[in-house]
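Write out this protein's structure.
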Amino acid sequence: MDVIARRDMLTSVADDLRIAGMTRPAPVAFTFDGATLRAPEGESLAAALIACGIRRLGEGLDPARPRAALCMMGVCQQCLLRVDGRLAQACLVAVRAGMVVTPA
């Protein structure tokens, strides 16, 4: 699947997973592993990635057990990513325009 088709697929998934009728800030663009995604500014990065259909955030020691957002409150550290080059927990980082996110 090419990058544009993947982005379009992820965008349509995101619209389906967010609660309809809620007022949100305007969506901003950020990149995850080379794909451009959009999410409301201020939404947690973990929630934004889940809403975009991205569940696998990285590889653990056992490839059969990938890292993912589990606790959503900063306790488990399974959602560790690189945000603009620095290690951060996705559940504790707010989405902002232009951020570059890669697996840790």
